[in-house]
Amino acid sequence: MTDYLVKALAYDGFVRAYAVDATATVAEAQRRHDTWNTASAALGRTMIGGLMLGATLKGDDKLTIKIDGNGPAGGIVVDSNGKGDVKGYIKNPHLSLPLNSIGKIDVRGAVGTEGMLTVIKDLGMKEPFSGQTPIVSGEIGEDFTYYLAVSEQIPSAVGVSVLVDTDDSIKTAGGFMIQIMPGASDEVIDQIEEQLKETTRISSLLDQGQTPEEILKGLLGTEDVDFLETMPVQFKCDCSKDKFGAAIISLGPDEIQAMIDEDHGAEAVCSFCNNKYEYSEADLLELKREAMGEV
Ligand SMILES: [Zn+2]
């Protein structure tokens, strides 16, 4: 089934909520990057957060999330947009740590407990918006929650989870984001907080066959949820041979000639999707001519 995200309102519009089934999306990232279980969970959780933050944007707007912690995962980078597209990579994909003290994948151990979470939003204006908060947990969901509270001043609860099978494939992956709007009553806030204490991980709820809609109703503790939009989400990279060609052109003619002389060609690998692009000597000569302004 296709992955999708739902946007909803509840409690007379004072609560905004998102839930996403990103199982196939995270599975594609796992296959493309050959991530091992701990890296799959860390990258997958960041991608799920990216999808939900992206869902707050308009269609063509986009954002980049960087998690730079002091753990063995190294950096994690995720790009998403308002159309449900997401892509990402983790510096150390071959990471498999022992389970943590509660028998779960040790994402904190992978990410680390010190470092920064950065969100850069390109909203089609001159200057991108950029917000940054320290890593407070390393489990990623709590780090998004902290980022939203401190950097965007939106009291939120974010849950992101990935269930990895014993063969390293992705069983389920998903998340929720619940935001309290200004003016919400203390009763509403208390009720949501109580409700969230009981929460089972989304990946387990998906594994039980629940839909994002059912999960949101359960999380919010009410049947009275107004679903505004359903948006398909997917792993999607916009790289191409032309785009990498433009990067090669920007190196300048001398550098391109050196690639021709030394390697008789070039290869570019997209760090987001692992697609490879080969440039023959003839391709490079063509790019060199463009670099010299001859085309
Ligand atoms: Zn790519």
Automatic annotation (TrEMBL):
Modification after translation: Under oxidizing conditions two disulfide bonds are formed involving the reactive cysteines. Under reducing conditions zinc is bound to the reactive cysteines and the protein is inactive.
Protein's cellular compartments: Cytoplasm
Disulfide bridge positions per record: C237-C239, C270-C273
Source domain of life: Bacteria
Keyword annotations of the record: Chaperone, Cytoplasm, Disulfide bond, Redox-active center, Zinc
Protein task: Redox regulated molecular chaperone. Protects both thermally unfolding and oxidatively damaged proteins from irreversible aggregation. Plays an important role in the bacterial defense system toward oxidative stress.
UniProt family annotation: Belongs to the HSP33 family.
NCBIfam families: PRK00114.1 (NF001033)
HAMAP family reported for this sequence: HslO (MF_00117)
The protein's name: 33 kDa chaperonin
Organism: Candidatus Enterococcus moelleringii
Gene label: hslO
